[in-house]
Amino acid sequence: MRRARVLIFWLGVWLAMGVGARAQVRPYIGFVYPAGGQQGATFQIRLGGQGLDGVHGALVTGAGVTAQVAEYRRRLNNQELQLLNEQLRELRRETRSAATNESALAASNTEAARQLMEKIEDRTFEFVPTPASAALASVVIVEVAIAADAPPGEREIRLVTLRGVSNPLKFHIGQLPERSRKPMLSASLQVLGKEAQALRKRLPGEVEERITLPCTVNGQIASGEVNRYRFQARQGQRLVITTQGRELVPFIADAVPGWFQPVLALYDADGKEVAYDDDYRFNPDPTIFYEAPKDGEYVFEIHDSLYRGREDFVYRIMAGELPFLTSLFPLGGPAGVPAAPRMEGWNLQDAALTPLAAEAGPGVQWLAATSKGLVSNRLPFALDCLPETLEQEPNDTPASAQNVTLPIIINGRIDRPGDWDVFRFLGWSNDTLVAEVRARRLESPLDSVIKLTDEAGRLLAFNDDCEDLGAGINTHQADSYFMVKLPADGAYFVSLGDTAQQGGPEYGYRLRLSAPQPDFELRAVPSSLALRSKSAAALTIYAMRKDGFDGPIKLGLKDPPPGFSAAPVTLSGTQTVARLALKTSLAATEEPVTLSVFGAARIEGREIVRQAVPAEDRMQAFLWRQLVPAQDLKVLVFDPAYQPPPKHPVPLRPPQLAATNAPLSTNVLAGTNSLAGTNRPAGTNALAGTNSVAGTNAAAAAKPKFTKQQVAGRLRELKLLYEEGLLTDEFYNDKVAECEAAQ
């Protein structure tokens, strides 16, 4: 019995926590379209999501970009749609009646009515009763202005509501002219056997568009849809057609395989396929490289590999004679004195790499090439503090192994299919050796495998893949790692190859052979947090311990702004996850603030401080759970009692209407064909949609009964529609009167 009571108690606690969690929905955005724009441009974008009521701001990281919310289109319900259709019919009648009146007032009223009709028609046109994803059905339209000198590259965009900050999504600043297809409406839920009804109905002229290279094209793929682009090319042009798809929206939670898988194909003027790509190496986003053999027209097309689609299947395609890096070598260098790597790729004549800062510390830098004023894609370049050397061929077998002295980082390549690189070193009994490959995490296609053998050829350690929680959205943890204690003094051999026996100039790697270097990294989840006035909320902190580090880590806030604090939390040596409670003494913040979480630990007599990288805990394809890094940790404090003044306050009720107590046999809650704004007498069965005669005893006796909750719901719908500027004063007052009479 006691155990049962304990279980019931904890069940109650869990339910209470669940109710509290549901009461405050975190703003969520599932797509941005278009997901970028050209320097110097001003344009509108659409962001789809949920929990966006009260949205009033948009944040874009980096300099040179401003964003303002222009309109919020929340998801309507069926009853609201019926109200809008009634209002539309009333406006059409009034417009027809006013057409016979030649007064200036009548003309002004007619123009206002037409503008409202256009607004309602636009809103009802987008209505989808059963969207494919309810999590995308609310849309925010944002006005974006990009400065002409805004640095090109990747940014992050978020939305700010009265009660929180959304997750971030990627937003790109480009240099090429941009072309965007018409925004897609909410996709309809597919019904088994009726899938064709959910396909996008494109006009034939919109399937293929004519473009001029170089340019960037933006689109959204619907179920079963193929987008085509026709362009002119010259003989000898080295064309690069590269896609951003999964990169823009990495997670599609309720779709299989869990992300948009774009497919690119290129055709010549005769319709012959001359190039095809469904991914670029291990990246699901495809890239085509093609040298035009002759002048003429070419067409490239994009679709999903499984012909799925909906509004969050967003893509950007850059096409033209663009600089594109395919590899760097070496993949890194010593911190403080790095040498520029050699670059390989397309259209890199007279190109220059991003200069490395001499003061750059250990970590990953991102390098791009600039050619003829255009900036290429970026590739990572690792900086470390250990001695470094280059691999030297031939070193394919233990007999020809390259001698190295530990500790060392070896920069090498698996030059050809079937190649192995073997390194020999001297070790001592009970010494601990760490062998770590960094290749896939540095954009190399190498799928490494490493093994340790002694002089007799006995296998002492082996590893293919090792999971790294800091690897972002990479679903294939292809880098290798092991830590092993050496059994005796003597010579040892570390052999490195590719699991699939592939190889080539781009199959670079960095192999670390050293004693353990204990360290740690931190991730703070989620990347945005909302706190009620003078309250607290918790972040989840993940510690990624390296090379066997098992010391305590003290967590806290770094230089928090006034009004914010966090009680220090210490992770013991066996812990990898902790909750850090953030507290605020503020009633509210006007804008989100940026906080920084740090962790401190004592390692080998030195205090090491690491900043926690903000991240989102996401799952894709129902399988891979990953901590996806974000650029900022945003926190908003809000007053739950605060209600902003409406942009369109509801009108005062006319005295004669407010004083009317006559019964109405109205089915206002059924939302049927009542006629708004007319001077019909009390008792009209407008809401029931019948033609009963006003004021009869039969109608009064048949008066339906509605609960307070039903009436309150209809009044709330009317208020929201009116405040959005979708109802006239007369229509609103008439409907409110019907609701009051129906109680």
Instruction: Note the overall shape.
Output: globular
Strand order of the largest sheet: 40-42-38-36-46-47
Major sheet size, sense and barrel closure: 6 strands, mixed
- The mean pLDDT is 88
End-to-end gap: 48 Å
Strand residue content = 35-45%
Text of the CATH class of the domain at 388-517: Mainly Beta
Known CATH architecture of the domain at 388-517: Sandwich
Q: Specify the structural class.
A: mainly beta
Distinct helical segment count: 8
Helix content: 10-25%
C-alpha-based Rg, rounded: 32 Å
CATH topology of the domain at 388-517: Jelly Rolls
Low-pLDDT regions:
1-23, 661-668, 670-701
Strand count: 48
List the helices and strands and how they pair.
Blueprint: H1 2-23, E1 28-33, E2 36-38, E3 42-50, E4 57-60, E5 65-73, H2 78-98, H3 104-125, E6 138-146, E7 153-161, E8 164-165, E9 169-174, E10 178-180, H4 204-207, E11 208-210, E12 215-220, E13 227-233, E14 238-244, E15 262-267, E16 273-277, E17 287-291, E18 296-304, E19 314-320, E20 324-329, E21 332-334, E22 342-346, E23 352-353, E24 363-371, E25 374-384, E26 388-390, E27 402-403, E28 408-413, E29 420-427, E30 432-438, E31 448-454, E32 459-463, E33 481-485, E34 490-498, E35 508-514, E36 519-525, E37 528-532, E38 536-546, E39 553-557, E40 564-566, E41 569-571, E42 577-584, E43 593-594, E44 597-603, E45 606-611, E46 613-620, E47 624-629, E48 634-638, H5 655-658, H6 697-701, H7 708-723, H8 729-742
Parallel strand pairs: 2-9, 10-12, 11-13, 21-25, 26-28, 27-29, 36-46, 37-48
Antiparallel strand pairs: 1-3, 3-6, 4-7, 5-6, 7-8, 7-9, 12-19, 13-18, 14-17, 14-19, 15-16, 15-18, 20-22, 23-24, 24-25, 28-35, 29-34, 30-33, 30-35, 31-32, 31-34, 36-38, 38-42, 39-41, 39-44, 40-42, 43-48, 44-45, 46-47
Helix pairs in contact: 2-3, 2-7, 7-8
